[in-house]
Amino acid sequence: MSKNYNAGDIRVLEGLDAVRLRPGMYIGTTGVKGLHHILWEIVDNSIDEIANGFGSGIIVTIHADGSASVEDDGRGIPVDIHPKLGVSGVEVVFTQLHAGGKFDSSNYAHSGGLHGVGASVTNALSEWLKVEVYKNGTTYRMEFESREINGEVKGGIPKYQLIDTGEKTDKHGSKIRFMPDKRIFETVVFQFETIARRLKELAFLNKGIGIKIIDERIAVGDGYKSLEYRYEGGIVDFVKYIDEARNTLYDEPIFLSGERDGISMELAFQHTDAYTENLFSYVNNIPTTEGGTHETGFKAAYTKVMNDFARRIGMLKDKDANLLGDDYREGLTAVLSVQMTNVQFEGQTKTKLGNPAARIAIEALVTQLLSEYFADEANGTVGEAILKKGMLAAKVREAARKEKEITRAKNAIDNFNLVGKLTPCTGKKPENNELFIVEGDSAGGTCKQARARSYQAILPLRGKPLNAEKKRIDQVLANEEIRTLISALGSGIGEDFNVDNLNYHKVIILSDADVDGYHIRAILLTFFFRYMKDLINEGHVYIGLPPLYKIAKGNQVEYAYDDGALADAKARFGKGASVQRYKGLGEMNADQLWETTMDPERRALMQVTIEDAAEAEKLVSVLMGDAVDLRREYIIEHADFNKVDSFKPV
Fold first, then answer.
1. What residues form DSSP beta bridges with 560?
2. Predicted pLDDT at 3
3. Which of 218, 223, 173 is nearest to 59 (CA)?
4. Residue 206 and residue 209: Cα distance in Å, rounded?
């Protein structure tokens, strides 16, 4: 390392070099999430074109070679020469960072892609990218590639300038096809279900737009696996879809729409017999999973209107205190979609809205429109149903508050008697500590012997914990296993949850690889999802993956975590190898459990994340709620009833 540091040591990155050098700055990660991010950048561009009234639909295709394409019937990327850069609009869009038509509101009234880096980032991180533009009755084409230059791989280099192919066409729009660069990404295999979920969400948010996905890797009859989405009801259909597995308090969702100060809003919401609220917000079709000013405006207006309505019809008396927003939002499912220009997202990942103007506009719109809704006597029964639900929630909240005060006084929750339950670690730094939640005392005993005492704690569960779906917080707090878990984590529950107080930054569910083990895992994840969602959102929840098989021959020992790995190991070991199938954690001794499942250097952990909040909400309610028919349909669709256990020891 040189001791001198001069101006000549400063490296100037040109073109798209910065993207390939630091891809995480632009797409967050080079894992599977980042892989799909470069597809979303192209999809979002097409959606922006269609949503602004310049087309009717898009087609996303996963091709047999692993590449992906997005085609829309919009205006088509500009093909004329850029007045300052001297190259075609297509080349500008795919090679210049912070270049695009979305910085000028005369081209797009609103858009999700505001940084102008989307298409160029996708190009930079692809082995090759091909563009076809259908415009002016003809077809234009241009291709880009990654290429080694002076010993360094550079991405997004034009193979040739934009050409008019002379191929006549009546179509209009653009088609972009690209192959993700395997030198950049950990995996380049697109996931059909991941793409389909996002496209369905976009179809809900853009009423009447047709969106189709085709997977040419999977043949079906004379064609390929495909799905098509079009929702004429828009976000009203979205709310109905989310609430399909629940009982609703009134028949149709409330729908409000309007515009103020250049900010347009669509809001649909409905109440169910559930005990948690679910608010899904979007700005220019981008999910704002961390909320922001638009959500703040909605909540403030909604609470005020409901309290005013309650007093107007006499359900709240002069002497009564106003209900809290949390009371009125119990059982609420709401979708808030905002369209606006000059969006201030917090970071390129666009998860939180920061515009103060959005709060003012949304609060004013919701106050006006919802007040008008309840001024109509025909909607009085809907309002009364919401008020009754809110007032019951307020009573339960007050009872729970008193119970918490009594509990704290007795040291029963915050310092619950964990003797004989939790085996703590000796480490005092939560960021280094791990909590293993294990199934039963037998597995718990083995884990205690296997663990690293300085940073690994063990909490065995006695029987199955409470299914928190459709349980009020007071019912949850009454369950001893749940109270033990809350106390061990130290971060509180529900509205009192504070991730800063977490005692263990890795919370690892470790259950047997059988039906009971998977059920316990699902119950714990449901509890975290319902009452400690930030524990998941902040990346603290993991699933431990113990091996299914032990293969041994002489002094050689290997562990396999699935049937594919077992087949590979058996082929390598040859004849004379013995195979042990582990049915539970208790079958392993402490050394084996440490070596395969608890040693950070060798174990396999799966981090639990929420990729699609609305779809996760729907899935949890279907699988863990009371909708037997919907759960049966899901199982029939996704379960493999023809799989045969062909395991035979050799």
1. 549
2. 56
3. 173
4. 6
Q: Which pLDDT tens digit goes with each residue over 303-353? A: 999 999 999 999 999 899 999 999 999 999 999 999 998 888 875 456 889
Q: Which residues participate in catalysis according to the annotation? A: 439, 512, 514, 516
Superfamily of domain 17-229: Histidine kinase-like ATPase, C-terminal domain (3.30.565.10)
DSSP for 466-532 reads: ---TT--HHHHHT-HHHHHHHHHH-S--GGG--GGG-S-SEEEEE--SSHHHHHHHHHHHHHHHHH-
What CATH number belongs to 411-546+605-610? 3.40.50.670
State the greatest distance between any 2 C-alpha atoms of the chain, in Å, as a whole number. 85
Tokens of 469: 């779906």
Say how far apart CA 459 and CA 18 lie, in whole Å.
46
User: Rounded CA gap, 163 and 94, in Å?
Assistant: 15
Distance, in Å, from the CA atom of 510 to the CA atom of 442, rounded to the nearest integer, reads: 13
- Domain ranges in the chain are 17-229, 235-403, 411-546+605-610
- pLDDT digits 0-9 by tens, 59-74: 999 999 999 999 999 9
CATH of domain 235-403: 3.30.230.10
The predicted-structure confidence for 495-551, as pLDDT tens digits, reads as follows 788 999 999 999 999 988 788 888 999 999 999 999 999 999 899 999 998 888 989
Band of residue 9 on the pLDDT scale cut at 50, 70, 90: very low
